[in-house]
């Protein structure tokens, strides 16, 4: 809703949602239901949109293009992360030290080096 109200509450965790269909998708996390199956590799997904994105692995489609260097990506969030290489922005801050990274994957790799 536009009011910020989140009336659809998950009975299994504390999450709540503004739309019923979003709650329905969320419940698949708890149930393990994965109704959308790839016909090529048989991998299955909780959401149709995730399957559609996955299909690009098989088709080689890369619809998201960087307007600076013309490199193409299969996922929009990968393009967004890539754009930080051009801006110099380092939005992924390590919670344990002062290091910051251009891409989320670089932060994840860095976090593996920290001993808890």
Written overview of the protein:
The longest helix is centred in the N-terminal third of the chain and has 12 residues, at 20-31. The protein is extended and about 40 Å long. It is 38% helix and 14% strand. The protein has helices spanning 20-31, 48-59, 76-87, 104-111, and strands at 8-9, 16-17, 36-37, 44-45, 64-65, 72-73, 92-93, 100-101. A two-stranded antiparallel sheet has the order 1-2. Strands 3-4 form a two-stranded antiparallel sheet. A two-stranded antiparallel sheet has the order 5-6. With 116 residues, the protein is of the alpha+beta class. The mean pLDDT is 93. The chain is built from 4 helices and 8 strands; from the N terminus they run E-E-H-E-E-H-E-E-H-E-E-H. The protein has a domain at 64-111: Classic Zinc Finger (Double Stranded RNA Binding Domain, 2-Layer Sandwich).
Q: Largest sheet, order of strands side by side?
A: 1-2
Q: Fraction of residues in helices?
A: 25-40%
- Described by the principal axes of the CA atoms, the overall outline is extended
- The CATH homologous superfamily of one domain is called Classic Zinc Finger
């Amino acid at each position: 809703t536009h009011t910020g109200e989140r009336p659809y509450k998950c009975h299994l965790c504390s999450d709540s949602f503004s739309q019923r269909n979003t709650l329905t998708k969320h419940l698949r996390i708890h149930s393990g239901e994965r109704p959308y199956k790839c016909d090529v590799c048989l991998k299955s997904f909780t959401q149709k949109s995730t399957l559609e994105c996955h299909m690009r692995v098989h088709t080689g489609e890369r619809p998201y293009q960087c307007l600076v260097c013309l490199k193409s990506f299969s996922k929009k969030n990968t393009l967004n992360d890539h754009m930080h290489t051009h801006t110099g922005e380092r939005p992924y801050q390590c919670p344990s030290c002062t290091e910051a990274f251009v891409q989320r994957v670089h932060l994840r790799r860095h976090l593996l080096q920290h001993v808890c």
